[in-house]
Amino acid sequence: MSSTTTTGGARQSAAQAELSRRSHTPAQRVQHLLHGNQWLSPLVLLIVTIIVFSIVNPRFMQANSLSLLVQQTAVVAALALGQTLVILTAGIDLSCGAVCVLSMMIMASLAAKNGVPGPVALVIGIASGLLAGYINGLLVTRLNLPPFIVTLGTLSIFTAVALLYSGAESIQDNRLPDILNWTGNSFSIAGFRITNGVLLVVVMYAVVGFALSQTAWGRHLYAVGDDSESARLSGIASKRVLLSVYSVAGLIFGIGGWVLIGRSGGATPNAIPTGNLDSITAVVIGGTSLFGGRGGVVGTAIGALIVYAFTFGLSLAGVDQQYRILAVGVLVIVAVAIDQWIRKVKS
Amino acid sequence: MTVQDTESQERTSATGSPKAADGRTPVLQGKGLIKTFGRVIGLDGVDIELYPGEVLAVIGDNGAGKSTLIKCLSGAYTLDGGELSLDGNPVNFRRVQDARDAGIETVYQTLAVIPALDIASNLYLAREERRAGPLGSVLRMLDKGGMRDRASDAVQKLGIQTIQNMGQAVETLSGGQRQAVAVARAAAFGSKVVILDEPTAALGVKEGNAVLDMIKQLRDNGIPIILISHNMPHVWEVADRIHIQRLARRAGVITPQSHTMQEGVAIMTGAMTADGKDAKKIAAEEETL
Question: Chain B contact for A263, CB < 8 A?
Answer without folding.
Answer: no
